[in-house]
Design goal:
With about 550 residues, this protein is mainly α. The protein has 27 helices and 3 strands. Helices cover about 75% and strands about 5% of the residues. The relative contact order is 0.05.
Length: about 550
């Protein structure tokens, strides 16, 4: 991709003085394919050869023979990289074209035909596995990879195939096995090209991130970004920046996460990587959700969903649906949320993808809880927690405890809550996941209030709000203010309730419970017309969440006016 860039070659030469550079220059030759090969080593011309053939496959084979001889390479370094017959090469190139065009089913068909015709075409088998994984057919992909890894294959193919296997295990939630595979790979004496090793290291960074080692992952990402060798590798640099942005978002460093996300998006667009663009839209949507800007998040996610659906990328579609459901749910659009969750569950079940299944369970739980359907919420949360336990996902196991605390407190139940809070706190302390802390502190305050420790509860809520401001978690700021207003109303401090609710206005809070609490405070302050206006706005903005208590308050307000 980049060896024709003079600047790139000069930079590489500075970094690696004895670098060997191979340049291919196409030439015009009537009736034949011709190119000129130049090999430079340590800045000096080592070889210049013109190669002519009547087919592309023959051209590659002749060129490989010349290079192997001149550079004293072993045939084992290239065996399995070139097909023997012209039509197999044709199938492979057509498969690459389909892959570039995101026509995954056609790419799979071409690569499968190529492998069927020549079973020892290792590069073809690797590309087949990559395509199967993109289609979400992970078991077939693993089968092809396991076959490939049992054969005597070039080191480059070995590292690339192992990296893909690590990625699939990561998706399945088996982070420990994936990390062990990389560590073993590092111990072996493998001389793969640098760019292939870079991809393996990037995949490992994502894996240690899931193993609650965020600082180790960030260090790897920063080494990539600071590495001059990667300046020209647009594809890998885009992935690295997107991965770093995702980790920064989890840690609450929103400003830096936005900067990295926007740079990743530019690189993906430059590289015409639609799937990468969709992933970055999803990341920007997560940040928008955190800022409580749900309409913006929905806009990003509908664009991402359109992309993933159009290219048939089921894994990507599932990830986007997960985020879209959340944005819809927080805008009270539960009907569409349920429909999309059904689709998410179907995709996750078909792909046997644990993370996607848990995302669906979480969405069902959240929507059931919002509708005060405690039995349904408990059932879905049980499914989420069991699967997190089965795949030993520490982060999601902690999240399950956090969800359980919320569910219990919603029902005014405090038995067992302290133990669950301790489990989540322990996870935060050991994983440096600061974004989870403000939300947990809000739950601590609610627990203290139910225990009758009102002063401690108010103090804890104020601290939670301050922490949320520090990590730009607008959602938790709104939640803290809503709870403060609720507590003040229970103490007959209606003006204080109204004051604290006004602090949320800059963050554009969703109607329920914000407008309901505002109307309640206004009504108690003898402002029935203002209360009526708040309630009618609430009913208009959140019809799917409008319930008995909202209707009863509306009845009382109207009665007082009339």
């Amino acid at each position: 991709m980049f060896v024709l860039s003079d600047d790139f070659v000069v930079n590489q030469q500075k970094l690696i003085p004895d670098l060997t550079i191979i340049k291919i220059k196409p030439l015009s030759e009537e009736g034949n394919m011709t190119w000129l090969i130049e090999v430079l080593q340590a800045g000096s011309l080592l070889l210049e050869a013109q190669v002519t053939a009547d087919s592309f496959q023959s051209l590659l084979t002749k060129s490989a023979d010349i290079l192997i001889k001149q550079l004293n390479l072993s045939m084992s370094a290239v065996i399995g990289l070139l097909p023997v017959q012209d039509f197999v090469m044709d199938l492979y190139v057509r498969g690459l074209q389909s892959l570039k065009a995101n026509d995954l089913n056609k790419a799979k068909q071409k690569f499968q035909l190529a492998v069927n015709e020549q079973s020892n075409f290792y590069l073809g088998r690797l590309k087949l596995a990559e395509t199967l994984n993109l289609l979400g057919q992970t078991e077939e992909a693993l089968s092809n990879l396991d076959t490939l890894l049992q054969l005597k294959i070039p080191d480059g193919i070995l590292v690339a195939a192992t990296t893909l296997k690590m990625r699939i295990l990561k998706v399945k939630g088996d982070y420990i096995s994936a990390a062990e595979i990389y560590q073993q790979l590092n111990q072996d004496d493998i001389l793969a090209p640098a760019d292939i090793w870079y991809n393996a290291a990037h995949e490992y960074a994502a894996i240690v991130q899931f193993l609650n080692k965020p600082q180790e992952a960030l260090a790897i990402y920063d080494r990539f970004i600071d590495d001059e060798l990667l300046i020209e590798d647009v594809a890998l640099l885009a992935k690295v920046r997107a991965s770093k942005a995702s980790l920064l978002q989890q840690q609450g460093d929103i400003e830096e996460a936005v900067i990295e996300s926007e740079q990743a998006l530019q690189l993906y667009e430059l590289n015409q990587d639609l799937i990468g663009v969709a992933r970055t839209y999803s990341l920007l949507a997560r940040i928008a959700n955190q800022k409580a800007n749900y309409p913006l998040a929905e806009q990003y996610l509908r664009q991402a969903h359109k992309i993933t659906e159009s290219v048939g990328h089921k894994l990507g579609e599932g990830a986007v649906l997960n985020e879209l459901i959340y944005a819809l749910m927080l805008q009270g659009k539960l009907k569409e949320g349920w429909e999309l969750t059904n689709r998410l569950l179907a995709i996750g079940t078909k792909l046997d993808y644990s993370a996607m299944l848990m995302a669906a369970y979480q969405a069902y739980y959240e929507m059931s809880r919002l509708q005060s359907n405690w039995e349904s919420a408990t059932r879905w949360l049980d499914s989420y927690q069991q699967l997190a336990h089965d795949i030993q996902d520490q982060r999601r196991t902690a999240k399950a405890e956090l969800f359980r605390v919320n569910l219990l407190l919603d029902q005014d139940i405090i038995d067992g809550v302290p133990k669950k809070i301790s489990i989540v706190q322990n996870h935060i302390d050991h994983s440096d996941e600061r974004l989870m802390q403000p939300a947990l502190d809000v739950f601590k305050a609610r627990y203290l209030w139910l225990k009758g420790q009102q002063n401690q509860a108010l103090e804890t809520l104020l601290k939670a709000k301050q922490k949320a401001i520090e990590v730009a978690d607008f959602e938790t700021i709104i939640n803290a203010n809503n709870n403060l207003a609720k507590f003040y109303l229970q103490q007959d401090k209606s003006q204080q309730a109204l004051n604290v609710l006004s602090e949320s206005e800059a963050y554009k809070p969703f109607a329920i419970p914000y407008l309901f609490l505002k109307a309640k405070a206004q009504f108690r302050l003898n402002q029935p017309i203002d209360a009526l206006n708040s309630l009618l706005t609430c009913q208009q903005q959140a019809p799917e969440l409008w319930g008995v208590k909202e209707q009863n308050l509306l009845h009382d307000v109207k009665k007082s006016i009339n």
